[in-house]
Write a structure and sequence with these properties.
With 202 residues, the chain is an alpha+beta fold. 51% of the residues lie in helices and 7% in strands. The protein has two domains: 82 residues, Glutaredoxin (3-Layer(aba) Sandwich); 107 residues, Up-down Bundle (Glutathione S-transferase Yfyf (Class Pi), Chain A, domain 2), CATH 1.20.1050.10. The protein is built from eight helices and four strands. It has a four-stranded mixed sheet, with helices on one face. Helix 1 packs across helix 8 and helix 4 runs parallel beside helix 6. The protein binds glutathione.
Amino acid sequence: MKLFFAPGTISLATLIVLCEADADFEPIAVNFANQDQTKPEYLAVNPKGRVPALVTKQGILTETPALMTYIAENHPAANLIPDTAYERAKMNEMLSYLASTVHINHAHKMRGHRWANNQSSFEDMRAKVPETVFNSFSLIEESLTGPWAIGTQYTIADAHLFTIANWMQADGVDPSRLPKIAAHIARMRDRPAVKKAHEIMG
Ligand SMILES: N[C@@H](CCC(=O)N[C@@H](CS)C(=O)NCC(=O)O)C(=O)O
């Protein structure tokens, strides 16, 4: 497998899962400073112009929850997906909320041009980010029973939650207002796979 990633992005979540699974893969950095994600060479890999993208023997995958699920299902010994239908649904509930709501709230800070054309709109969207990011993480905080994102089993949802929660401070949210999520971040930082993923990401 080949993982196309960029530092400081959501691709960290997939990198963590690859390291947790002890998977055989080649990391390939996409240079955002050069806007390489918008160039034809990369658009041939991922026409969405985003990271991550995972090249597998069967084809190319995009969208973080899909990549993490694919890796976890192909490395069952790592036990990163729950056995019961209910717990799997709770995990997917977390992945969906993170991808469709929390990540999008965060993206309103720097990527307002996706949704509007005027500078005043960008400023308005950016000003709202501390509130929307805090509100979405507050709902997650209330749902956490610990130690992991969906309870006692460590799953791919932990890599996803950790990656997005790491952006909170830069989004204007004080993590001490969300003590369970702050403790989750600290717990994640201690994991060897998370340390390895950070090393690869640079
Ligand atoms: N829904 C996608 C979102 C991927 C995404 O938005 N990635 C951002 C980095 S966090 C990106 O590649 N942005 C490049 C750009 O907007 O030019 C996922 O969860 O994988």
